[in-house]
């Protein structure tokens, strides 16, 4: 806890905070390895994952205001509720409660990360709100303190504060950076029409496992971490894996066509991102990624194919 302010001491808050707008850019994530362990007593699954932040961004601008209000444009506009259920508003309240400040701000979200796409867009927005409001209100928390608040908002939120490539354990909220020599990996991100519910994907995986029809669980992240160190996209391609992929394919069989089309277009590997339905493909380099994206769009197996690179930084003021 930082030093307490009286919640009604707005003058002091204004003196400490930013007077102009604060703009924060936050990336989407993919899981290079998503190992799903058993269901825990608290309803979460034990995860063993390698997160990777990619260059598809949402942008949150925070300005001073007399209430807490959110507007948005882009992916999901008109569909996503802007009330207290939105992760941006929940994050602002969580930070204000922690720091003992008045949660007043005008927030505007420019969304490019597809909704319910398996790219952790909502978690990204929560991370952006923590970083933006921390600067706007002058609460001055460290990244680790912000990540602590983030963990209560969602399993992926702490990673999106940090970004890069990182190991996630527990329900995904315990994050430690993967230290590798700087290498840029090139991705094609096939955005699907409509989303998939993450809880439904976990339930489907449990059902497939009970029925004995799920694939072998991935297990340790050692292979993936070793592949990252070799800096060869062909080696990384062979190490990618996602235990939720069977569940996503069972709920959305058409994703098999997307994965096949990526392979036919020459991708080194393709996997479902998180709980889907977004599929991501690894390319040898940027030009290769561009060619795969064009072929995927021509094959009409996705709403849109975007190129991206990673790792990139987490939520940052721009
Ligand atoms: P994950 O990969 O973390 O499982 P996802 O990418 O599949 O998530 P999100 O876009 O993060 O899915 O959103 C999941 C749900 O969270 C949405 O359907 C919506 O109900 C809720 N939500 C709340 N706030 C937001 C937000 N700012 N952006 C997106 N979704 C939000």
UniProtKB/TrEMBL annotation:
Gene3D superfamilies: 3.30.230.10, GHMP kinase, C-terminal domain. It is an enzyme of class 2 (transferase). ATP binds at residues 114-124. Keywords: ATP-binding, Isoprene biosynthesis, Kinase, Nucleotide-binding, Transferase. InterPro entries: GHMP_kinase_C_dom, GHMP_kinase_C_sf, GHMP_kinase_N_dom, IspE, Ribosomal_Su5_D2-typ_SF, Ribsml_uS5_D2-typ_fold_subgr. Residues 225-298 form the GHMP kinase C-terminal domain. One of its GO terms (molecular function) is 4-(cytidine 5'-diphospho)-2-C-methyl-D-erythritol kinase activity. It catalyses: 4-CDP-2-C-methyl-D-erythritol + ATP = 4-CDP-2-C-methyl-D-erythritol 2-phosphate + ADP + H(+). It comes from the Bacteria. Residues 86-164 form the GHMP kinase N-terminal domain. The active site is at residues 29, 156. Its EC number is 2.7.1.148. GO terms for biological process: isopentenyl diphosphate biosynthetic process, methylerythritol 4-phosphate pathway; terpenoid biosynthetic process. Residues 1-22 are annotated as: Disordered. Pathway: Isoprenoid biosynthesis; isopentenyl diphosphate biosynthesis via DXP pathway; isopentenyl diphosphate from 1-deoxy-D-xylulose 5-phosphate: step 3/6. PANTHER family: 4-DIPHOSPHOCYTIDYL-2-C-METHYL-D-ERYTHRITOL KINASE, CHLOROPLASTIC. Catalyzes the phosphorylation of the position 2 hydroxy group of 4-diphosphocytidyl-2C-methyl-D-erythritol. Belongs to the GHMP kinase family. IspE subfamily. This is 4-diphosphocytidyl-2-C-methyl-D-erythritol kinase.
